[in-house]
Specification:
It is a single chain. By secondary structure, the protein is α/β, with parallel strands linked by helices. The strands form 6 sheets. Strands 1, 4, 5, 8, 9 and 14 form a 6-stranded parallel sheet that branches. The longest helix has 43 residues. The relative contact order is 0.15. It binds zinc ion (ZN).
Length: 403
């Protein structure tokens, strides 16, 4: 009997214990679900709080100890917040990589523009001219498709701070035509002509400041005041353009066809003289990028080093990027396939579309192949399977993160 009573007591205790365990388990599940929901919500609401991610990193391989990142492994950096000293007010960083799949080994489109006019006329050239209206429509399309502008300097340094999940793009303008940029005088003051590509970009920037107000203009100093023809001196035009955050690049003295030049000296003159004249117009102006006129290079490969650097009349020049004319999106500068001496550009659509222009490329520039930013210029984030595309020698002080 006692035994039985004991055993029924034991049974009751066992049932109670199981019941309590069940309740605890149920509460745990409920709590876990709630937390999971909150986590999900946090991921859906952009941007999540940036926590310092101390990820396994590939140290930059360098023979020069001075270039080794001066950073203790155990020193977490403060969370990234847009502050007074922040390079960008639009810094949006995300670390939920699996969700938005950043790929900073992907390609970056570098668009090449030439002429802009108010309206086409019957004799308007067909491939390299666009209207202001079409240009404005293009800006909207690019913005909607997630492209954000970076400068040539940022491209060269892979110093890319477009918002997380967006795609960097570079605008380049050749020949210094008035439709690209010119000044008008209003009430005794110089202003950017709204009927110019820069005027259109300024207007667009008021509405969509996160698109970026950037681009590089490749100029030929031999045409003198005909560059950005309009009001103001050439010096004032350069100053205003640079003050707006744009850049100036070398397009040679004389718009030379390099496949016709036969000596180092001729090449040095075409680049050094253009540099020299630019500095005469605006002291301190240094070109760091060259756009090859007609996309042509010397046939004799031993002459090509003079495109990169050289000296003319005691004036030294150094082109950190040399831009071609066709016809693909470019590899980023940290890619094993990057060649700074021949960087691909895509021509903007002209009056009539042609194969491999930007309109042709846009639907082909799929997320899988393009550079998608994590928002943090200090990190290079790539999917594990694409990590072999990163040249760790080119990372400098950036941290490689794979996921
Ligand atoms: Zn040109």
């Amino acid at each position: 009997m006692r035994k039985n009573t004991n055993s029924s007591k034991k049974n009751r205790r066992a049932i109670l214990a199981v019941a309590i365990l069940c309740i605890i388990a149920a509460i745990s599940v409920l709590l876990a679900n709630n937390l999971g929901d909150e986590k999900k919500k946090a991921q859906e609401t952009l941007p999540p709080v940036e926590t310092e991610t101390v990820m396994p990193t590939e140290p930059a391989q360098t023979d020069n100890p001075a270039e080794t990142p001066d950073q203790s492994e155990n020193t977490p950096e403060p969370a990234e917040t847009p502050g007074e000293d922040s390079p960008s007010d639009n810094l949006v960083i995300r670390t939920d990589y699996e969700v938005f799949k950043p790929n900073e080994a992907g390609e970056i489109p570098i668009v090449m523009f030439h002429n802009f006019i108010e309206a086409y006329e019957p004799n308007t050239e067909k491939e390299f001219t666009t209207t202001f209206e079409e240009f404005e429509t293009l800006l909207h399309n690019l913005y909607d498709q997630g492209y954000r502008l970076i400068s040539m300097r940022e491209f060269i340094d892979c110093d890319i701070s477009v918002p997380a999940g967006t795609k960097p793009m570079v605008f380049t303008f050749d020949d210094g035509s008035a439709g690209q940029f010119n000044l008008i005088e209003k009430d005794g003051k110089l202003e950017v002509n709204p009927k110019s590509a820069v005027g259109v970009m300024l207007r667009f920037n008021e509405k969509y400041p996160d698109f970026g107000l950037k681009g590089i203009f490749y100029v030929n100093m031999n045409i003198g005041d005909n560059t950005f023809q309009g009001a103001g001196s050439l010096k004032e035009r350069f100053e205003i353009l640079l003050d707006l955050g744009f850049e100036l690049g070398n397009h040679t003295w004389g718009h030379v066809k390099y496949n016709t030049l036969k000596s180092i000296e001729e090449i040095e003159e075409s680049l050094g003289k253009n540099q020299q004249k630019a500095e005469e117009v605006l002291p301190g102006l240094r070109f760091y990028s060259l756009a090859l006129p007609h996309g042509s290079r010397p046939e004799n490969k031993s002459l090509r080093s003079a495109l990169v650097e050289g000296t003319y009349n005691g004036v030294y020049y150094h082109n950190e990027t040399i831009m071609a004319v066709g016809a693909n999106p470019a590899k980023p500068s940290i890619s094993i396939e990057y060649n700074s001496e021949y960087v691909a550009r895509i021509r903007a659509q002209g009056r009539e579309p042609v194969d491999c222009d930007l309109t042709w490329w846009l639907p082909r520039m799929t997320d899988n192949r393009m550079f998608i930013s994590d928002g943090d210029p200090k990190t290079i984030v790539v999917p594990e399977e694409k990590s072999s595309q990163v040249d760790v020698e080119k990372l400098n002080d950036k941290t490689l993160i794979t996921y």
